[in-house]
Amino acid sequence: MRGPRPEDFDTNAGHPTPTFPAGGSRKKGMGVRTWLVLCSSGKEQATEAGKHTIMRRTGLPARDLRILDPLLSYPSTVLGRERAIVINLEHIKAIITGQEVLILNSKDPSVAPFIEELQRRIRCHHHATKPQEGVNTEGAAQGEAGTSQLSGEEARKDKKQSLGNQDGSKVLPFEFVALEACLEAAITSLESEAVRLELEAHPALDKLTIKINTLNLERVRQIKSRLVAITGRVQKVRDELEKLLNDDEDMAEMYLTDKLAQKQLENSTASSTSDTVVVDLPEGDEDDRHVADYFEHATLVSSESCHRGSDAHNLLMRAHSALSRNSRGTSSTRSGMTNKLNVQELEMLLEAYFVQIDGILNKLSTLTEYVDDTEDYINIMLDDKQNNLLQMGVMLTTAGLVMSLFIAVAGVFGMNINIELFNDEVAGPGKFMWTVVGGTAGSLFLYFGAIGWYKHSRLLE
To answer: So where does this one cross the membrane (predicted)?
Structure first.
């Protein structure tokens, strides 16, 4: 690597100081951006945060944040991570967590309608789940001792029952409400652009078929360029949704509310069981009900056989090993069944927008076929005109050849020779006229004979 040159240093001071480009300070400050934060209650707050702050807040790696960088050109992407969902769809650049939504380009005029719609949906979701949360809180206060013994499956059922309206209708989790708003805004934008392009394309193509000129050709060229660009964007969104629908694990990663509820359940159960026996549990054990049963059994046996200290210790170790095997298998089975059931909910949401984006792509494909058909028609017309020009060229060339023969005869008669035809007393003007008329008739006969032979040979139509 080349070191700094001597002219890169400022020698006016006591010690040489390297001078850096003027844009260095600007690049250093580019990491801090303005984010619009929408909490689960619908309140908004604009905050300035750097890359590392967002990483700590959402748990996302740096490579996922680069997807949202407006200075970089990344295609449409939907990523599900452990604590957040990254959305990069058209003009929508957001991060969805289990409790809030962070929007990057909130000052963009095209994003303002999306923010209003998202805020309205979040408030509706908050009002729909707030009464149920109040009821669940009162029930939890009355039966605090009983709820500590609930299994993971029962707790998830209570969580799902809380996500419902008073009339019994299902309410989506917070992250799915925000995800649905992002998908609808992006797909609606693409659909409106596709409809506008279709309305402009048909009249321009019809004018081109009627009259081929430079203005109409330039207009169709611009429309085709826009059509190729929007088709690529729609195809990318469709591929991203199809990729999510084909991978259940990616969809399971997007259940942020269930992850938060499961984490709270594990923390509460761990704190309740720690009062009885203090043992380091291995990671991945999710069935805490078996934990209480095994350790309660081990405690009873050890109290009855207190005079056998070594036997009680061995029994406790065997119970812990059996717990590890049994709990690991049971938790994996129940987790798989729960994810399968939960994924169906997200799958239905994604399929609805997949069908919509697929319809937009079909519409653009139809428009592309119409443009291609128009191009084929224009090429056929141009080929026909070119054929007509070639036929006219053949006829003119033949006429020129016949005229050159007549001119050759006139040149022969123009030579300075003495013959009786040039003697007025012998030939007279009558023979001269017969010579001119005969040469003209012979030329016409040769011309029409050549044209007839061309048509007989199918060289001319």
So the answer is: 389-412, 432-454
The whole-angstrom separation of Cα 360 and Cα 387 is 40
Confidence grade of residue 140 (pLDDT, cut at 50, 70, 90): very low
**Rounded Cα gap, residues 97 and 39, in angstroms:** 10
- Eight-state DSSP code of residue 279: -
Tell me which long-range contacts 75-78 makes (C-beta under 8 A, separation of at least 24): 75/236, 76/186, 76/233, 76/236, 76/237, 76/240, 77/240, 78/179, 78/240, 78/241, 78/244
Span 228-238, mean pLDDT? Answer: 94
- 95 pLDDT tier (thresholds 50, 70, 90): very high
Q: State the DSSP code for 24.
A: H
CB neighbours of residue 52 within 10 Å: 11
Least confident range from 19-28, 175-184, 228-237, 445-454: namely 19-28
Instruction: Give the separation between CA 100 and CA 117, rounded to whole angstroms.
Output: 15
Condensed to tens digits (0 to 9), the pLDDT of residues 75-93 reads 899 999 989 999 999 899 9
- 3-class DSSP string for 97-117: CCCEEEECCCCCCCCHHHHHH
Give burial (CB, 10 Å; 0-12/13-18/19+) of 26: exposed
CB 190 within 8 A of CB 360: yes
Q: Is the pLDDT of residue 155 over 50?
A: no
Q: What is the residue extent of each domain of the chain? A: 256-365, 382-456
Residue type, 72: L
- Per-chain mean pLDDT for the chain: 75
Q: Tell me the β-bridge partners of 17.
A: 10
Q: Quick one: pLDDT at residue 212? A: 87
325 burial (CB, 10 Å; 0-12 / 13-18 / 19+) is exposed
Task: Find the range with the poorest average confidence among 5-14, 101-110, 128-137, 335-344.
Answer: 5-14
| Residues 267, 316: Cα–Cα separation, whole Å | 23
β-pairing, 33-39 vs 100-103, is: antiparallel
Q: What is the pTM of this model?
A: 0.65
Total residues found in the chain within this entry? 461
Quote the CA–CA distance of 168 and 28 in Å, as a whole number. 52
β-sheet bridge partners, residue 33: 49
